[in-house]
Structure formats: structure tokens, C-alpha cells
Design goal:
Layout lengths: L1 H16 L8 H21 L11 H23 L2
């Protein structure tokens, strides 16, 4: 995956140097900004990065987040079906 990303970045740089411009996907760029902001909040709150944190039970966290997401879906569906 990292090799593919490096290849894409090289191609983008070559296009830029040749005077070509390209459009980035706004949806992707917006999400990247949100991820960066969320990372900063997490580092401040937990005093560690996700990469360096080896003590949490990430599968349990994921399960709890998905249960929350299911509740949000149920709530929205109940509002739509009224």
C-alpha cells in the first residue's frame, strides 16, 4: 500500500512540474482534515498516539462504536418512518 501511495505522489509531482493540474476529491480532502483534527484531540486527551498505544482493547472499542452507530441508524430510521 505504501509503495502505491509513493508511486501516486511521484506521478502527481511529475504532472505538477510539467504544468498540469489535477483536481483532488473534496470529499476525501474534507475527511483527511477531520481525521487530522480528531488525531490532535486524541493525542491531547490520551497523551499518546494511536500508533504508540498498545494497551487499549481496540476490538472492544470498535464493537462499542459500531453499537453506537447502530443506535444512530435506528433513531434516524424511526424518524423517517413516522
Amino acid at each position: 500500500m505504501r509503495d502505491k501511495l509513493d508511486e501516486v505522489r511521484r506521478e502527481e509531482k511529475e504532472m505538477y512540474l510539467k504544468g498540469f493540474s489535477y483536481n483532488k476529491d473534496k470529499i476525501v480532502e474534507d475527511l483527511k482534515q477531520e481525521l487530522d483534527a480528531r488525531s490532535c484531540v486524541g493525542i491531547t486527551k490520551y497523551k499518546t498516539t494511536l500508533q504508540d498505544n498498545n494497551t487499549d482493547d481496540f476490538l472492544q472499542h470498535l464493537k462499542e462504536e459500531l453499537m453506537d452507530a447502530s443506535l444512530y441508524i435506528q433513531k434516524l430510521q424511526s424518524k423517517i418512518n413516522k
